[in-house]
Amino acid sequence: MAGLCEGGNEPPGSLKASKRKSLTASGGGDLQPCVVHPCNLQRNLYLSFDYCHIIKNIRSQFLDHDMADKEGTISSKFIKEIYRIQKDLAVKPFRFLTRKHVEPSSFEKMNVLYAVQTFSLEVTSTLDYMKENHLRLTSRVNFSEAGPTIRFMKNVYKFFTVHDISDKTQHLRRSNPDSMMFYSAADDRLRWLKDDFCDYINELQTESKTRNLKGLTKETHGALILTAESTASCIVHLLQNGFFYVLTRAFSGDPVEAMFSAIRMGGGWNDMTDSRTAQNAINRILKSGLLISAPDANIAHEERSEMTGKGLSREENNYCDISSQTTVILPQHISVLLESIYEPCMPVFINLGTASQALVCGYLVRVIEEKTSCSSCANDVSIPPTAAPLMGLIHKLDKGGLRYPKPDFVSLIITLQKFVEGALPYCMKSAHLLQTITNYVLPTLEQCDILKCSNEKSH
């Protein structure tokens, strides 16, 4: 497969005239997904644009202007509204959504990770939750109209997912069947790529033109169709000619960019690397056998977190002795918040913040299951899976492993959050903030009926 990506400062998905002319000559005047190899007439050459550059370009156009499909208008205003809502939330539905995702600079538009996260399952699940509960939630936009946007984002994310399969167990780690390696020419994803996805993109262009909207650019539209058809055809060809399975990340041009990032990093992060510095960096790579992309490179990879420096552990940082803590006196109106834990739990008001807190409480239930051998302890704070409004965000994200907390447990955690937010201004001067807050909260929690085991009172 020959990867085609942008040249110079041209927008992603565009081709220089000279390169297009040489490639279209083999396709009878049009850029075809499969052409005869110019040096070997017995072989086929599959042409494809780099899917990483395509998704960056789609994200940029999605944020720039509205589009449409047969179901309605596709708009980025819903993501921008979620960003506005969750900015002031202590517990967010997803942590990664920042200004760089919804209002990126020219340089930030080149980051693949930001583009993929914009279309990720967490974002579409939150949009779907807001759409289903729009009558209960207050916002500046009408989320009941978010259906076409959710459909568009899911299709784009699936397109990226089936092109980004890196190993044979990726689908197990991510609990996503779309990340499974291709091992059969009859795979439904191949039909989806070649037929369903291409039909959807053509529909998007037609409907956008009908409604006087821009839609995708001609270059991006052509790149999507060409890449989808080429990938599907190439996978079928490989599987029918001796390959046991296909990992589509090998089709990406990111390894080349990783090489460039390593050379740039070897030159001291110099954007104007000279030939001698580049040669030294290449020689070091050849001698050491190590090729590590820069943490701020415009490629997405799993090892990024491993490259960042780790902070000192508590032992290395001479963590303080608990007995040396200085007592902090809290005002009465703050202490009352903590004492309200003993009162009967009030019904939880449904909004995006409380749904996010329920998601975190589900994680706490999972921690209780892992840290204790008593099944009753976890059962006392959890409920069976449900699509109730408070648990709606968990239900949308659940692939089979998430936990559903009891509403009383969620109410307790919300009360604790209010207490911590109120107490923090009075504890900021404490040398050991976390331990100070813990000293206040722990005695009260130990007497809370919600957290007492129904079978063993000592738990």
TrEMBL record:
Annotated region (Disordered), positions in chain: 1-24
Transmembrane segments: none
Every Transposable element P transposase-like GTP-binding insertion domain range: 52-162
InterPro entries hit by this protein: TNP-like_GBD (IPR048366)
Top-rank taxon: Eukaryota
PANTHER family reported for this sequence: PTHR48257, PTHR48257:SF1
Protein name: Transposable element P transposase-like GTP-binding insertion domain-containing protein
Organism: Periplaneta americana (American cockroach)
